[in-house]
Design a protein that fits this description.
The structure holds two protein chains of two kinds. Chain A is of the alpha+beta class. Chain A has nine helices and 20 strands. The longest helix of chain A has 17 residues, at about 60-75. Chain A starts with a strand and ends in a 24-residue tail after the last helix. Chain B is of the alpha+beta class. Chain B contains nine helices and nine strands. In chain B, the strands form three sheets. Chain B has a five-stranded mixed beta sheet. In chain B, strands 6-7 form a two-stranded antiparallel sheet. In chain B, strands 8-9 form a two-stranded antiparallel sheet. The longest helix of chain B is centred in the C-terminal third of the chain and has 20 residues, at about 215-235. The N and C termini of chain B lie far apart (about 65 Å). The chains are: A alpha+beta, B alpha+beta. The interface between A and B is large, with 61 and 59 residues.
Amino acid sequence: MATFHVLIIGGGATGAALAHDLALRGLQVTLVERGEVTSGTTGRHHGLLHSGARYAVKDQESARECIEENMILRRIAPESLELNDGLFVAITEEDVAYRDLFLEGCAQCGIPTRELTREEALRLEPNLSPDLKLAVQVPDGTMDAMRIPLRFLATAKHNGAVIKPFTEVVAILKQGNTVTGVRVRDHRTEKEYEIGADIVVNAAGPWSEKVAAMAGVHVPIQPSPGVLLALRGRLCNMVINRLHRSGDGDIIVPQRGLSVVGTSSWVVEDPDNLPVPEDHVQLMYEKGAEMVPMVKQAPFRAAWSAARPLVGERGATTGRELSRTFKCFDHADEGVEGFVTITGGKATTARGMAETTANVVCQKLGVDAPCRTREVVLLPHTAYYVQPD
Amino acid sequence: MAEQTVQFKVFRYKQGERPSYQTYTVRVDPRTTVLRALEQIRQEQDGTLAFRHSCFHASCGTCGMKVNGQEVLACVTNVLELGTPVVVVEPLDNAPLITDLVVDMGDFYARYQPAGMPMIRESEFLPDSQVPEGVEHHMRLENCIECGLCLSACPVAGSDPLYLGPAALAAAWRMVEEPRGRDPATVLAWVDHEHGCWRCHAAFECSEVCPSNVDPAGAIMALRRELTRRKIGQLFGRR
């Protein structure tokens, strides 16, 4: 059987999971990333393993994807997760009023919940605000934002995939209306060369609109940054979420010896060189402290911005109105063959995004190979650097 | 916010060319970190500048480099707090150079991986809290973020390429300290030689530069004590 070659643009969680999926299906895979792997949006997220509960009321498609992938990641990468669950905490009467809608949404999406009284929740998390009214426990967790993608990449490499960091796509090659490969610049030498491919997949996250434009097609992506704040010390063991609809500063994720408070949301044209607006940083302190007052006393570690790749046409105002689900575009629909874009989604759902995309790729190539990424346990992240025998 | 102009003197190297330093002028504000300044340079002045980064909050260990001669994580190094009109940025030592500020972490992991340290430990925080129903015990990711700062700062690693180095020895001590079902003897045998825990000169540079409070020097001393204890035990016929 002839082996088809798939070239993936983007070394974030999505590209990493896709390289793994396609390599397991027996395809020849090359992944190129302009910087270090996970240097875009992937590495910068708050490290939340989503239960989906955050989206259970307003964005149920994304919520269902999250809970399904959450359970799969527990099987395939257990050593890279802090499985301490999460709490949705009600601080005001308005939060309490949101409870029924929230519990109903979680039930509809298959997300297990357990209601806790104020006292029960304070026993679990003594640093919660004394204003706490009640809490709901959900299967959130903390993930290692970089090392889970590294495990996808390590396993992909073990199965023959070639991973090329510091390799930037400068042009997409076409013959007529068919994409035939890419021209890249190797930033180790600043020399350019071409890589041919049967299919090119654009997995460039918030940059996917720019990449698609190189192929002469349009991808509706709205880069939507958020500010995150890391504080020294673990203020909680569980993930703490505000029990209300999505808003600013409504989550605290414990991560190693840090606590990460997130996020704000606005929209930008260019996902590069994001500003860190001071008022957003202060908002993280204010809103975070409403849930855990010690947020205001904990020593500062870092403040930064990360751009979500939300699927939607330009014109959104904050990005909160857009779904967190993902979308795979086969650009043959617009008359360009051999070019597929996968974008949107969450770090939690990267494997599912990859499965959907690999199905499209295999169908286009006429390859009949089932997806195996739900079962295959990933190699340790260290295997990305040192391949096992 | 008070913006200032700072000069960055950055080490440059592309394969097949001579290494050099290049100076860039960058506008910074009180929150600008060295990593953000490098991003600004790459975005606005020089798209060929290569460096590693991922999390931007000292949790991934990717952006280790030398700033004014000191090993740091660029993401949590505030530019104005450095207090120098020129900021010198160079790649880590004791690791093969790939390009510009990018070093090859392969050797680091080749030494680190045999310790077999799991990534997850029991959380020692919030001791007053109970464990929620459905959770066996609170857990958290290990402290070591595998940044390589300790190996770069280690004076012995520069002279003995076979030395296991601080990060690997600290990982070995974590295994001995908390074996989690494994036999610590295997790990102890792995470090008990002239390029292992006995090679350290106790310069404590590693613990100085560690951004994650791992204290590799303390771990190396603990390994020596444990090996000594076991050897004395064997002399007197005890385990």
